[in-house]
Amino acid sequence: MSVADSPAVRRVGRVALIAWAVFGFVFLFTPIVVTVIYSFNEPAGKYNYIWNKFSLAAWKDPFKYPELTDSLVYSLKVAFVVTLLATILGTFMGMAMVKYKFKAKGLLGAVIVLPLTMPEVVMGFSLLTLFVTLNWSRGFVTIIIAQVMFSVSYVATTVRARIRGFDWRLEEAAADLGAGPVRTFMKVTLPLIAPGVLAAAMLTFALSLDDFIITYLNSGLDNTFPIEIWNLKRSRVPTQINVFSTSLL
114: which residues sit within 8 A by CB, 6+ positions away? Predict the structure, then answer.
């Protein structure tokens, strides 16, 4: 028996793996826990950075700052539209990549992955240049276009992974029974790939709410929730930010 296969070495390896996993979870979830805890803080000044004392004041009056509330509502509207459009486009792109064979399939795959690897500031400035060249006023529409541009890649990648082992003979069987393409998709294909589509939609919604760089460069005078937080931090950081953030969890 080699040293690597000895019970003592395996025991040490198992303990080290568990310790590393615990460290990873602590590292990932500590900021979330701190955000939740500080939603119950009553700061001594305008900035909710240092713990002062426990209070439910922010939870009792979460809409104290109208500009913060309006930006959150605006972000939710943007996220809903982006999720709807990106999920539809990305789902059909992912299905096409798996189901069909065509000459530009490799190129399309590279184009889909490109937004995932491109720095956000590069994509943001590229879209900004496009909108300025077209003389488009930046606002709700440009934010939607900008966010769909990168969100559709996440959807297509997620859906493609989900349906890679899909049995397309089920669609052929439905067609043999007289179902049209739309009915086949709604009754056969969609229910089977629904978990992947739902996961992609949830990811897109979260990415839309969270995005700052691309949205900031293409938002004009409209402020989403992250942009409003960025603007507020110059004068104050109210506890209501933590309240809204905790609620979004």
Answer: 153
Which residues, in sequence order, are bridge partners of residue 54?
Answer: 41
- Quick one: angle between helices 66-99 and 225-232, nearest 10? 140
Count of alpha carbons within 13 angstroms of residue 45, beta-carbon side:
7
Q: What single DSSP character describes residue 138?
A: P
- Helical H runs in 39-168? 57-60, 66-99, 105-117, 120-133, 140-162
Do 187 and 76 share a structural domain? Answer: yes
Beta bridge partner(s), residue 237: 47
Report whether 150 contacts 115 (CB < 8 A): yes
Q: Do residues 44 and 81 share a domain?
A: no
pLDDT in tens, 86-128: 999 998 888 888 777 777 777 777 778 888 888 888 888 888 9
Q: Coil, strand or helix: which one is 48?
A: coil
CB 114 within 8 A of CB 152: no
Contact predicate 148/82, CB 8 Å: yes
Task: Note whether 223 and 74 are within 8 A (CB).
Answer: yes
pTM of the model as a whole: 0.81
Full residue range of the structural domain in which residue 14 is found: 3-59
| Contact between 74 and 222 (Cβ < 8 Å) | yes
Q: How many domains does the chain have?
A: 2
Q: What is the DSSP letter of 203?
A: H
The pLDDT assigned to 74 comes to 92
Same domain, 113 and 143: yes
Residues 6+ apart with CB under 8 A from 122: none
SS3 54: strand
Q: What is the pLDDT of residues 198-236, one digit of tens each?
A: 989 999 999 998 888 889 888 888 888 889 888 888 888
